[in-house]
Amino acid sequence: MSDLETKMNTNALKLKPQDIFLFNARANQTPGVINMTVGEPDFLTPEHIRNATSQAILHEGMHYTIPEGKPELTQAIAAFLNKKYNLHYDPQTQIVTTIGVTESVFTTLTAILNPGDEVILPTPCFTIYEPDILLNQATPVYLNTSQTDFRVDPAALQKLLQQHPKTKAIILNYPNNPTGVTYNRQELTALAQVLKQFEIFVLSDEIYSELSFAGQHVSFAELLPEQTILMNGLSKSHAMTGWRVGYVCGPQNVMQHLLHVHELVTTSLPEAMQDAAIDALTKGQDDPQAMKAEYQRRRDYLQQQLEELGITTSRPQGAFYMFMKLPAQVNQDDVVVANELLEQEQLALLPGSFFGLGGSGYLRISYAASMEKIKLAVTKLADYLQKVGVN
Fold first, then answer.
1. Of 268, 283, 298, which residue constitutes the final position of a domain?
2. How many other C-beta atoms are found inside a 10 Å radius of the C-beta of residue 336?
3. Which GO terms describe its molecular function (predicted)?
4. Tens digits of per-residue pLDDT, 296-315?
5. Using CA atoms, how far apart are residues 26 and 342, in angstroms rounded to an integer?
Protein backbone atom coordinates (compact mmCIF):
# COMPACT_ATOMS: atom_id res chain seq x y z
CA MET A 1 0.00 0.00 0.00
CA SER A 2 1.30 3.44 -0.88
CA ASP A 3 2.09 5.94 1.88
CA LEU A 4 -0.67 8.50 1.30
CA GLU A 5 0.71 10.72 4.03
CA THR A 6 3.52 11.72 1.67
CA LYS A 7 0.95 13.00 -0.82
CA MET A 8 -0.73 15.38 1.59
CA ASN A 9 -0.51 19.17 1.56
CA THR A 10 3.11 19.84 2.45
CA ASN A 11 2.15 22.82 4.59
CA ALA A 12 -0.31 20.69 6.55
CA LEU A 13 2.43 18.11 7.11
CA LYS A 14 4.59 20.81 8.68
CA LEU A 15 1.95 21.70 11.27
CA LYS A 16 2.74 20.60 14.82
CA PRO A 17 0.47 20.13 17.82
CA GLN A 18 -0.06 23.38 19.72
CA ASP A 19 2.36 23.45 22.66
CA ILE A 20 -0.19 25.16 24.89
CA PHE A 21 -2.72 22.37 24.33
CA LEU A 22 -0.16 19.63 24.92
CA PHE A 23 1.06 21.25 28.12
CA ASN A 24 -2.48 21.82 29.37
CA ALA A 25 -3.40 18.18 28.69
CA ARG A 26 -0.34 17.04 30.63
CA ALA A 27 -1.20 19.39 33.47
CA ASN A 28 -4.72 18.01 33.71
CA GLN A 29 -3.29 14.52 34.12
CA THR A 30 -1.24 15.66 37.14
CA PRO A 31 -2.95 14.74 40.43
CA GLY A 32 -3.75 17.75 42.62
CA VAL A 33 -2.68 20.26 39.97
CA ILE A 34 -3.47 23.96 40.24
CA ASN A 35 -3.91 24.69 36.56
CA MET A 36 -3.38 28.37 35.69
CA THR A 37 -2.83 27.83 31.96
CA VAL A 38 -6.36 28.13 30.64
CA GLY A 39 -7.63 31.35 29.08
CA GLU A 40 -11.22 30.61 29.93
CA PRO A 41 -13.54 32.58 32.22
CA ASP A 42 -14.36 30.67 35.40
CA PHE A 43 -17.84 32.22 35.48
CA LEU A 44 -21.05 30.62 34.29
CA THR A 45 -22.61 32.04 31.16
CA PRO A 46 -25.21 34.55 32.44
CA GLU A 47 -28.49 32.86 33.30
CA HIS A 48 -30.65 34.90 30.93
CA ILE A 49 -28.51 33.72 28.00
CA ARG A 50 -28.79 30.10 29.04
CA ASN A 51 -32.55 30.44 29.48
CA ALA A 52 -32.98 32.11 26.08
CA THR A 53 -31.06 29.27 24.45
CA SER A 54 -33.13 26.60 26.20
CA GLN A 55 -36.34 28.24 25.08
CA ALA A 56 -35.09 28.49 21.51
CA ILE A 57 -34.18 24.80 21.44
CA LEU A 58 -37.55 23.79 22.90
CA HIS A 59 -39.79 25.96 20.78
CA GLU A 60 -38.04 26.92 17.55
CA GLY A 61 -36.37 23.83 16.25
CA MET A 62 -32.83 24.18 15.02
CA HIS A 63 -32.21 24.72 11.31
CA TYR A 64 -29.65 26.05 8.87
CA THR A 65 -29.46 29.80 8.62
CA ILE A 66 -27.81 31.95 5.98
CA PRO A 67 -24.00 31.62 6.26
CA GLU A 68 -23.38 35.16 7.50
CA GLY A 69 -25.79 34.61 10.37
CA LYS A 70 -29.43 35.34 11.10
CA PRO A 71 -30.39 38.92 10.23
CA GLU A 72 -31.40 39.45 13.86
CA LEU A 73 -27.88 38.50 14.92
CA THR A 74 -25.94 40.62 12.44
CA GLN A 75 -28.23 43.53 13.32
CA ALA A 76 -27.53 42.98 17.02
CA ILE A 77 -23.79 42.90 16.33
CA ALA A 78 -23.95 46.12 14.32
CA ALA A 79 -25.95 47.88 17.06
CA PHE A 80 -23.61 46.63 19.78
CA LEU A 81 -20.48 47.79 17.95
CA ASN A 82 -22.04 51.15 17.21
CA LYS A 83 -23.06 51.76 20.82
CA LYS A 84 -19.86 50.46 22.41
CA TYR A 85 -17.15 51.46 19.95
CA ASN A 86 -18.63 54.02 17.56
CA LEU A 87 -18.37 51.64 14.60
CA HIS A 88 -20.68 51.71 11.62
CA TYR A 89 -21.22 48.40 9.84
CA ASP A 90 -24.02 47.41 7.48
CA PRO A 91 -25.45 44.22 9.03
CA GLN A 92 -26.36 42.86 5.59
CA THR A 93 -23.03 43.30 3.81
CA GLN A 94 -20.22 43.94 6.30
CA ILE A 95 -20.62 41.32 9.06
CA VAL A 96 -20.04 37.56 8.99
CA THR A 97 -20.55 35.38 12.05
CA THR A 98 -17.93 32.68 12.66
CA ILE A 99 -17.22 29.68 14.86
CA GLY A 100 -15.34 31.79 17.38
CA VAL A 101 -12.51 34.16 16.57
CA THR A 102 -10.39 31.10 15.81
CA GLU A 103 -12.40 30.67 12.62
CA SER A 104 -12.38 34.42 12.03
CA VAL A 105 -8.58 34.35 11.89
CA PHE A 106 -8.41 31.26 9.66
CA THR A 107 -11.11 32.43 7.26
CA THR A 108 -9.72 35.95 6.99
CA LEU A 109 -6.15 34.86 6.32
CA THR A 110 -7.33 32.28 3.78
CA ALA A 111 -9.35 34.95 2.00
CA ILE A 112 -6.57 37.56 1.75
CA LEU A 113 -3.28 35.68 1.41
CA ASN A 114 -1.49 34.51 -1.71
CA PRO A 115 1.64 32.33 -1.74
CA GLY A 116 4.68 34.48 -1.03
CA ASP A 117 2.81 37.20 0.85
CA GLU A 118 4.20 38.39 4.18
CA VAL A 119 2.30 39.12 7.38
CA ILE A 120 3.73 41.25 10.18
CA LEU A 121 3.24 39.48 13.47
CA PRO A 122 4.02 41.40 16.68
CA THR A 123 5.31 38.96 19.28
CA PRO A 124 4.78 37.54 21.86
CA CYS A 125 1.36 36.64 20.50
CA PHE A 126 -1.37 34.03 20.59
CA THR A 127 -0.27 30.79 19.02
CA ILE A 128 -2.71 30.27 16.13
CA TYR A 129 -1.61 33.20 13.97
CA GLU A 130 1.73 31.80 12.81
CA PRO A 131 0.51 28.34 11.68
CA ASP A 132 -2.50 29.89 9.93
CA ILE A 133 -0.13 32.15 7.99
CA LEU A 134 2.18 29.26 7.09
CA LEU A 135 -0.71 27.01 6.06
CA ASN A 136 -1.67 29.67 3.51
CA GLN A 137 1.89 29.60 2.06
CA ALA A 138 2.68 33.05 3.38
CA THR A 139 5.56 34.14 5.60
CA PRO A 140 5.34 35.63 9.10
CA VAL A 141 7.56 38.67 9.68
CA TYR A 142 8.15 38.96 13.42
CA LEU A 143 8.16 42.24 15.31
CA ASN A 144 9.58 41.57 18.77
CA THR A 145 7.88 43.93 21.23
CA SER A 146 9.65 42.79 24.39
CA GLN A 147 11.90 45.89 24.45
CA THR A 148 8.98 48.34 24.09
CA ASP A 149 6.81 47.17 26.99
CA PHE A 150 5.15 44.65 24.67
CA ARG A 151 3.67 47.40 22.51
CA VAL A 152 4.20 47.96 18.79
CA ASP A 153 6.49 50.95 18.35
CA PRO A 154 5.36 53.13 15.39
CA ALA A 155 8.93 53.85 14.24
CA ALA A 156 9.87 50.17 14.32
CA LEU A 157 6.69 49.33 12.42
CA GLN A 158 7.42 51.96 9.77
CA LYS A 159 10.92 50.58 9.28
CA LEU A 160 9.72 47.00 9.04
CA LEU A 161 7.05 47.86 6.48
CA GLN A 162 9.61 49.66 4.33
CA GLN A 163 11.90 46.62 4.51
CA HIS A 164 9.13 44.21 3.52
CA PRO A 165 7.29 45.37 0.38
CA LYS A 166 5.53 41.99 0.13
CA THR A 167 3.60 42.68 3.32
CA LYS A 168 -0.10 41.91 2.88
CA ALA A 169 -1.28 42.37 6.45
CA ILE A 170 -0.45 42.99 10.08
CA ILE A 171 -2.18 41.23 12.98
CA LEU A 172 -2.91 43.29 16.07
CA ASN A 173 -4.37 41.78 19.24
CA TYR A 174 -5.32 43.98 22.17
CA PRO A 175 -5.90 43.65 25.05
CA ASN A 176 -3.18 41.17 24.34
CA ASN A 177 -2.81 37.48 24.96
CA PRO A 178 -0.35 36.65 26.57
CA THR A 179 0.74 40.00 28.07
CA GLY A 180 -2.50 41.77 28.99
CA VAL A 181 -1.16 44.96 27.37
CA THR A 182 -3.52 47.26 25.49
CA TYR A 183 -3.37 50.64 23.72
CA ASN A 184 -4.97 54.02 24.33
CA ARG A 185 -6.39 56.22 21.57
CA GLN A 186 -3.18 58.25 21.20
CA GLU A 187 -1.05 55.13 20.78
CA LEU A 188 -3.47 53.62 18.26
CA THR A 189 -3.63 56.86 16.29
CA ALA A 190 0.15 56.83 15.95
CA LEU A 191 0.01 53.28 14.58
CA ALA A 192 -2.82 54.18 12.22
CA GLN A 193 -0.77 57.09 10.85
CA VAL A 194 1.93 54.60 9.88
CA LEU A 195 -0.36 51.91 8.49
CA LYS A 196 -2.43 54.25 6.32
CA GLN A 197 0.72 54.87 4.25
CA PHE A 198 0.72 51.24 3.10
CA GLU A 199 -1.88 49.32 1.13
CA ILE A 200 -2.21 46.45 3.57
CA PHE A 201 -4.89 44.86 5.73
CA VAL A 202 -5.00 45.42 9.47
CA LEU A 203 -6.41 42.32 11.16
CA SER A 204 -7.51 43.56 14.57
CA ASP A 205 -8.30 40.76 17.03
CA GLU A 206 -10.23 42.51 19.80
CA ILE A 207 -11.76 39.48 21.53
CA TYR A 208 -10.86 40.97 24.96
CA SER A 209 -12.30 44.43 24.20
CA GLU A 210 -14.92 44.21 26.94
CA LEU A 211 -12.26 43.27 29.50
CA SER A 212 -10.17 46.42 29.26
CA PHE A 213 -9.18 47.91 32.64
CA ALA A 214 -7.57 51.04 31.18
CA GLY A 215 -10.67 53.03 30.32
CA GLN A 216 -12.87 52.67 27.28
CA HIS A 217 -11.53 50.31 24.65
CA VAL A 218 -10.82 51.98 21.31
CA SER A 219 -11.30 49.82 18.23
CA PHE A 220 -8.77 50.11 15.44
CA ALA A 221 -11.70 49.93 13.04
CA GLU A 222 -12.79 53.37 14.23
CA LEU A 223 -9.42 54.89 13.27
CA LEU A 224 -8.76 53.10 9.98
CA PRO A 225 -12.03 51.49 8.81
CA GLU A 226 -11.06 51.22 5.14
CA GLN A 227 -8.13 48.90 5.94
CA THR A 228 -9.27 47.13 9.09
CA ILE A 229 -10.81 43.69 9.36
CA LEU A 230 -12.22 43.53 12.88
CA MET A 231 -12.51 40.20 14.71
CA ASN A 232 -14.43 39.84 17.95
CA GLY A 233 -16.85 37.53 19.74
CA LEU A 234 -18.57 36.56 22.97
CA SER A 235 -16.23 33.91 24.39
CA LYS A 236 -14.40 36.12 26.85
CA SER A 237 -16.85 38.96 27.44
CA HIS A 238 -19.85 36.78 28.31
CA ALA A 239 -18.11 33.59 29.50
CA MET A 240 -19.26 31.79 26.34
CA THR A 241 -16.12 29.96 25.20
CA GLY A 242 -17.95 26.71 24.51
CA TRP A 243 -20.72 28.43 22.56
CA ARG A 244 -18.25 29.33 19.80
CA VAL A 245 -19.71 32.64 18.63
CA GLY A 246 -17.42 35.06 16.85
CA TYR A 247 -17.78 37.62 14.10
CA VAL A 248 -15.67 39.44 11.57
CA CYS A 249 -16.42 42.88 10.09
CA GLY A 250 -14.86 44.95 7.34
CA PRO A 251 -15.31 46.88 4.09
CA GLN A 252 -18.09 45.50 1.92
CA ASN A 253 -15.90 44.80 -1.11
CA VAL A 254 -13.63 42.66 1.09
CA MET A 255 -16.32 40.97 3.16
CA GLN A 256 -18.20 39.61 0.14
CA HIS A 257 -15.18 37.44 -0.70
CA LEU A 258 -14.45 36.53 2.90
CA LEU A 259 -18.03 35.28 3.16
CA HIS A 260 -17.41 32.83 0.32
CA VAL A 261 -14.48 31.32 2.21
CA HIS A 262 -16.56 31.14 5.38
CA GLU A 263 -19.25 29.23 3.46
CA LEU A 264 -16.68 26.53 2.71
CA VAL A 265 -15.64 26.26 6.35
CA THR A 266 -19.13 25.91 7.77
CA THR A 267 -22.65 26.33 6.43
CA SER A 268 -23.66 28.44 9.41
CA LEU A 269 -23.36 28.72 13.16
CA PRO A 270 -25.78 26.47 15.09
CA GLU A 271 -29.05 28.35 15.35
CA ALA A 272 -29.23 27.90 19.13
CA MET A 273 -25.86 29.58 19.53
CA GLN A 274 -27.04 32.45 17.37
CA ASP A 275 -30.10 32.89 19.58
CA ALA A 276 -27.81 32.95 22.61
CA ALA A 277 -25.66 35.61 20.99
CA ILE A 278 -28.69 37.76 20.15
CA ASP A 279 -29.77 37.65 23.79
CA ALA A 280 -26.25 38.46 25.00
CA LEU A 281 -25.86 41.43 22.68
CA THR A 282 -29.31 42.91 23.21
CA LYS A 283 -30.07 42.12 26.85
CA GLY A 284 -26.65 41.47 28.32
CA GLN A 285 -24.55 44.43 27.21
CA ASP A 286 -23.57 45.10 30.83
CA ASP A 287 -22.90 41.45 31.72
CA PRO A 288 -19.11 41.79 31.37
CA GLN A 289 -18.87 44.55 34.00
CA ALA A 290 -19.11 42.36 37.11
CA MET A 291 -16.69 39.84 35.62
CA LYS A 292 -14.25 42.58 34.67
CA ALA A 293 -14.32 44.02 38.18
CA GLU A 294 -13.50 40.61 39.62
CA TYR A 295 -10.67 40.05 37.15
CA GLN A 296 -9.24 43.43 38.10
CA ARG A 297 -9.41 42.52 41.80
CA ARG A 298 -7.57 39.28 41.10
CA ARG A 299 -4.99 41.09 38.97
CA ASP A 300 -4.24 43.58 41.73
CA TYR A 301 -3.85 40.85 44.33
CA LEU A 302 -1.71 38.65 42.10
CA GLN A 303 0.59 41.45 41.02
CA GLN A 304 1.18 42.55 44.60
CA GLN A 305 1.99 39.01 45.66
CA LEU A 306 4.37 38.47 42.74
CA GLU A 307 6.18 41.72 43.46
CA GLU A 308 6.70 40.59 47.06
CA LEU A 309 8.31 37.44 45.65
CA GLY A 310 10.65 39.57 43.53
CA ILE A 311 8.86 38.82 40.27
CA THR A 312 8.27 41.69 37.85
CA THR A 313 5.45 41.87 35.33
CA SER A 314 4.18 44.28 32.72
CA ARG A 315 1.02 45.51 34.46
CA PRO A 316 -1.92 43.95 32.60
CA GLN A 317 -4.43 46.50 31.34
CA GLY A 318 -6.96 43.99 30.10
CA ALA A 319 -7.84 40.33 29.48
CA PHE A 320 -6.90 37.97 32.35
CA TYR A 321 -3.24 37.10 31.85
CA MET A 322 -0.05 38.16 33.58
CA PHE A 323 3.33 37.77 31.86
CA MET A 324 5.84 37.10 34.61
CA LYS A 325 9.58 37.72 34.18
CA LEU A 326 11.64 34.97 35.73
CA PRO A 327 13.95 36.35 38.46
CA ALA A 328 17.60 36.59 37.46
CA GLN A 329 18.56 33.90 40.00
CA VAL A 330 16.27 31.36 38.33
CA ASN A 331 17.04 29.22 35.28
CA GLN A 332 16.05 31.44 32.34
CA ASP A 333 14.83 28.48 30.29
CA ASP A 334 11.12 29.05 30.84
CA VAL A 335 10.18 25.60 29.52
CA VAL A 336 12.43 23.95 32.09
CA VAL A 337 10.99 26.10 34.87
CA ALA A 338 7.40 25.40 33.82
CA ASN A 339 8.10 21.67 33.80
CA GLU A 340 9.74 21.85 37.23
CA LEU A 341 6.80 23.79 38.64
CA LEU A 342 4.42 21.16 37.29
CA GLU A 343 6.45 18.19 38.52
CA GLN A 344 7.58 19.55 41.87
CA GLU A 345 4.75 21.85 42.89
CA GLN A 346 1.79 20.61 40.82
CA LEU A 347 1.45 24.18 39.52
CA ALA A 348 0.78 24.65 35.80
CA LEU A 349 1.94 27.91 34.18
CA LEU A 350 2.66 28.29 30.47
CA PRO A 351 6.20 28.97 29.22
CA GLY A 352 6.45 32.41 27.64
CA SER A 353 8.47 31.04 24.74
CA PHE A 354 5.35 29.19 23.56
CA PHE A 355 4.14 32.63 22.44
CA GLY A 356 7.06 33.41 20.18
CA LEU A 357 9.91 35.91 20.05
CA GLY A 358 10.23 38.00 23.18
CA GLY A 359 8.55 35.39 25.35
CA SER A 360 11.64 33.53 26.51
CA GLY A 361 12.35 33.97 30.20
CA TYR A 362 8.68 34.59 31.02
CA LEU A 363 5.77 32.54 32.27
CA ARG A 364 2.10 33.26 31.56
CA ILE A 365 -0.34 32.87 34.43
CA SER A 366 -4.07 33.12 33.84
CA TYR A 367 -6.11 34.70 36.61
CA ALA A 368 -9.36 33.48 35.10
CA ALA A 369 -9.45 31.29 38.17
CA SER A 370 -10.88 31.56 41.67
CA MET A 371 -9.10 33.63 44.28
CA GLU A 372 -8.57 30.42 46.22
CA LYS A 373 -6.63 28.92 43.31
CA ILE A 374 -4.66 32.13 42.82
CA LYS A 375 -3.60 32.09 46.48
CA LEU A 376 -2.56 28.44 46.22
CA ALA A 377 -0.62 29.22 43.05
CA VAL A 378 1.28 32.01 44.81
CA THR A 379 2.11 29.68 47.71
CA LYS A 380 3.41 27.00 45.35
CA LEU A 381 5.42 29.54 43.38
CA ALA A 382 6.97 30.88 46.59
CA ASP A 383 7.88 27.34 47.64
CA TYR A 384 9.58 26.70 44.30
CA LEU A 385 11.56 29.93 44.48
CA GLN A 386 12.74 29.07 47.95
CA LYS A 387 13.91 25.65 46.76
CA VAL A 388 15.99 27.19 43.97
CA GLY A 389 17.56 29.73 46.30
CA VAL A 390 15.44 32.84 45.72
CA ASN A 391 14.21 34.65 48.87
1. 283
2. 12
3. transaminase activity
4. 999 999 999 999 999 999 88
5. 9
